[in-house]
């Protein structure tokens, strides 16, 4: 049986999470692997005015959300449950989603390549002088990195794609990157999902700008108008084009005949009867 102290802590956690779900209607589901306590402190301080961070055990968070939805009848938060896998937490916010995301990304920190670590991104070593003495060439030979000796030090002759995303870092790669003083990885809170007033979507959606939306709508209207003109089926999208095409036909007739009208003379810049 759980102790009284644990029960009190669980009840307090449940109350806090429920209060946040009552207060906020937007949240980020974030992944927090390799994020240090100092990073958390800095992020909390930076978004304190409009956002709250809540971490916890997945089972506890899922249980609290499920009971909250049953009690209130608001089942929109249930969408998060299937995505609560691994070391995750929630950032509840009233701020602009894009701005909050930018602030979170500002607190990523560089990290060295450790043996056995799964690479979160590609690692490329740039060509150039390494400053290492010729006795260190064995590291480069093991990794098939082309080098030459220049002014008593090892020089890499071409960019080398050392590690691919998803690969495990080997001992040779980790040692070489350490000797070169390269910290190829960066860690911070990673946004997995965005919850916004009952909708759950990928954070990539936040990259879509108003200009992008406008271009997509414009392209769609053009396609609709083209199809309607081809089918001779008038719609709101095609009527402006039909009117312009009709006016062009009338204008062409005015040019080829003695018929004229004020708008034609204005567009052509002269009177047909001068």
UniProtKB/TrEMBL annotation:
Residues 113-182 form the Large ribosomal subunit protein uL10-like insertion domain. The keyword Ribosomal protein applies. One of its GO terms (molecular function) is large ribosomal subunit rRNA binding. Pfam families: Ribosomal_L10 (PF00466), RL10P_insert (PF17777). Transmembrane segments: none annotated. The keyword Amino-acid biosynthesis does not apply. Keywords: Ribonucleoprotein, Ribosomal protein. GO terms for cellular component: cytosolic large ribosomal subunit. SUPFAM superfamilies: Ribosomal protein L10-like. It comes from the Eukaryota. One of its GO terms (biological process) is ribosomal large subunit assembly. Belongs to the universal ribosomal protein uL10 family. Ribosomal protein P0 is the functional equivalent of E.coli protein L10. This is Large ribosomal subunit protein uL10-like insertion domain-containing protein. It comes from Chlorella ohadii.
């Amino acid at each position: 049986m759980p102790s009284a102290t644990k029960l009190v802590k669980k009840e307090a956690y449940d109350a806090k999470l429920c209060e946040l779900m009552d207060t906020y209607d937007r949240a980020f589901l974030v992944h927090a692997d390799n994020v240090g306590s100092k990073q958390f402190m800095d992020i909390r301080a930076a978004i304190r005015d409009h956002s709250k961070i809540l971490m916890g055990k997945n089972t506890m968070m899922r249980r609290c959300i499920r009971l909250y939805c049953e009690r209130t009848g608001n089942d929109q938060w249930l969408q998060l449950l299937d995505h609560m896998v691994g070391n995750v937490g929630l950032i509840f916010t009233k701020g602009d989603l894009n701005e909050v995301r930018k602030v979170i990304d500002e607190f990523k920190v560089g990290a060295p390549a450790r043996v056995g670590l799964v690479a979160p991104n590609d690692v490329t070593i740039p060509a150039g002088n390494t400053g290492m003495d010729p006795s260190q060439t064995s590291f480069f030979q093991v990794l098939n990195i082309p080098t030459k000796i220049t002014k008593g030090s090892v020089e890499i002759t071409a960019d080398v794609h050392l590690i691919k995303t998803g690969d495990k870092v080997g001992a040779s790669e980790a040692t070489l990157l350490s000797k070169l003083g390269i910290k190829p990885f960066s860690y911070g809170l990673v946004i997995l999902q965005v919850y916004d007033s009952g909708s759950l979507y990928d954070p990539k959606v936040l990259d879509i700008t108003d200009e992008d939306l406008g271009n997509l709508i414009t392209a769609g209207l053009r396609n609709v108008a083209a199809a309607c003109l081809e089918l001779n089926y008038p719609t709101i999208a095609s009527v402006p084009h039909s009117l312009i095409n009709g006016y062009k036909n009338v204008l062409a007739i005015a040019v080829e005949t003695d018929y004229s009208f004020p708008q034609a003379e204005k567009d052509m810049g002269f009177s047909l009867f001068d």
